[in-house]
Design brief:
Blueprint lengths: L4 E2 L4 E2 L10 E7 L22 H19 L6 E6 L7 H14 L7 E6 L6 H10 L3 E7 L3 H6 L6 H14 L2 E8 L6 H14 L3 E6 L7 H7 L8 H17 L4 E3 L2 E3 L6 H7 L3 E5 L4 E6 L2 E7 L3 H11 L3 E6 L2 H12 L6 E2 H8 L5 H9 L3 E4 L3 E4 L1 H4 L2 H9 L1
Parallel strand pairs: 3-4, 3-11, 4-5, 5-6, 6-7, 7-8
Antiparallel strand pairs: 1-2, 8-10, 9-10, 12-13, 13-14, 15-17, 16-17
The structure holds S-adenosylmethionine and iron/sulfur cluster.
């Protein structure tokens, strides 16, 4: 049984079965007005105008190629991510969403999310996105003080962020925003104050990410040179615990490592990833997982925007990879994604893919250490302590 958007509350009615992960479509807009010094996403700055009509034609062609692989499916969510998708014209968004509706079955009221930067928000565009069908926005607020916003290289200030939040709340049935914490020198008290402000501004969903120093970014060089000091493991754990406690206290507990929502307000699209569902990944550098003829394919497209465009224009699609995943690989991915979720992993599904049981000695050890727990006989999940060392837990269970 698939869930729908309740028209009265504009909230998703959650899946009754976590084993029905849905089918999502992700579309990547690879451009930003400026590159943030911490970001290693596939985002690029262009000083000349981007030809959006050309991108629309290419998105359409690549979607048709994904449809040929996926066959007919019912779309349960769409996500326009980036980069900065709020640099797209509303007509571009409209054309992309219309094409999805032409290729797959797209029931009314499915979740359609768009990422938006507070600096590129204005009411007419927001209304245009809403008219095109977007019903959820995710705003990149990142911090609620101007000093940190500047340090993070953001183009907006707190006033812009508050304006964007107000507009989003007014125009879209659902909204969320992102904050980055564990910034240099940030104390637990300062973060708790900022988070409490955020909680007052939020509706029912927040994404709260610990700052990661990504290789190849300007922050990586500065960190290596000792010019940026991030919180150590103990401090990170304290910040994480404060985040869990404050969001749980106000009824928006973590449903995933960094994502917090009131029950029913979870991001349907992201749940599809973490529940290891299928999704089409469209646009430069997008990844997908598509089942066809009983096989699950991992797709990846060319990352560089203009190279991707040229490839689609000459070959009809920008895929550089379309690899059939062995069942054991699928089992590993299911575990990796599912243990991020508070609802955990369906063990029967994992066993069916891996063709084996979990090693009882490893499982007992991790349970004794307080890293994982069983939910009845059928599900396994990480405890909050286990979430802090998730990669190690997955590595231990998967091998
Ligand atoms: C793909 S970004 C796009 C969002 C949008 N362009 C923006 O920046 O407002 C999605 C989110 O990832 C988070 N993020 C990106 N790089 C990060 C990093 N190095 N550490 C922690 N969070 C990061 C930010 O919170 C950001 O809003
Ligand atoms: S605006 Fe978002 S996607 Fe663009 S560089 Fe900054 S964090 Fe990355």
């Amino acid at each position: 049984m698939l869930e729908t958007l309740d028209p009265k509350t504009a909230r998703i009615i959650p899946l009754t079965e976590a084993t029905e992960p849905g089918f999502g479509v992700y579309v990547h807009w690879p451009f930003c007005a400026a590159k943030c010094p911490y970001c290693d996403f596939n985002s690029h700055v262009r000083h000349q105008q981007v030809d959006q009509a050309r991108f629309v034609a290419a998105f359409k062609a690549e979607m048709a190629a994904a449809r040929a692989l996926s066959g007919p499916r019912t779309v349960t969510s769409i996500f326009l991510g980036g980069g900065t998708p709020s640099l797209m014209e509303p007509a571009t968004v409209d054309a992309v969403l219309s094409q999805i509706g032409q290729l797959w079955h797209m029931p009314d009221g499915i979740e359609i999310t768009m990422e938006a930067n507070p600096s590129s928000v204005e009411a007419t565009r927001f209304r245009g996105y809403r008219a095109a069908g977007v019903n959820r926005v995710s705003l990149g607020v990142q911090a609620l003080n101007n000093r940190d916003l500047k340090w993070l290289g953001r183009l907006h200030d707190v006033e812009d962020a508050l304006k964007a939040i107000r507009l989003a709340r007014e125009i879209f049935p659902r909204m969320s925003f992102d904050l980055i914490y564990a910034r240099p020198g940030q104390t637990v008290e300062a973060w708790a104050d900022e988070l409490r402000q955020a909680v007052d501004l939020a509706v029912d969903h927040l994404s709260l990410y610990q700052l990661t120093i990504e290789e190849g970014t300007p922050f990586f060089g500065l960190h290596k040179a000792g010019k940026i000091t991030v919180p150590d493991d103990d401090m990170s754990a304290e910040l994480y615990e404060a985040t869990q406690a404050i969001t749980a206290e106000i009824g928006m507990p973590a449903y995933e490592v960094s994502n917090h929502a009131a029950p029913g307000a979870e991001s349907r699209h992201n749940l599809t990833y973490w529940r290891y569902g299928d999704y089409a990944g469209i646009g430069p550098g997008a990844h997908g997982r598509l089942t066809s003829g009983g096989e699950k394919f991992a797709t990846a497209t060319e990352r560089h925007p203009e190279t991707w465009l040229a490839k689609v224009e000459t070959e009809g699609c920008g895929f550089v990879d379309c690899e059939s995943l062995a069942r054991e690989e699928q089992a590993d991915e299911l575990l990796l994604m599912g243990l991020r979720l508070r609802e955990g992993v369906d063990l029967a599904r994992w066993q069916a893919l891996s063709g084996r049981d979990l090693d009882p000695a490893r499982e007992d050890f991790l349970i004794e250490q307080g890293f994982i727990e069983r939910l009845g006989n059928s599900r396994l999940r990480c405890t909050p302590k286990g979430m802090l060392v998730l990669d190690a837990v997955v590595a231990d269970l998967a091998c």
